[in-house]
TrEMBL record:
Gene3D superfamilies reported in the protein's UniProt record: VSR Endonuclease (3.40.960.10)
Entry annotated with the keyword Hydrolase: yes
InterPro entries reported for this sequence: DUF559 (IPR007569), Endonuclease_DUF559_bact (IPR047216), Restrct_endonuc-II-like (IPR011335)
A Pfam family it matches: DUF559
Name of this protein: Endonuclease domain-containing protein
Source species, domain of life: Bacteria
Amino acid sequence: MSARDAKPWSALRQLRAQGQHVRRQVPIGPFYADFVSHRAKLVIEVDGQTHLVGGAEYRDALRTERLKD
């Protein structure tokens, strides 16, 4: 797990006490979501350095549209 994911993962795992099940690195179509709660219909993406390289904005927009479905 990357350092950028460790802090949110620690907080999200605490939701289990409230009956929420959060998974990390969940495949959704051709993409991987950082964190997902299927019950809450929630997808959380944590942007890191990979979102700053060439073409990343376009790929992020495609992923966002796919995840909205």
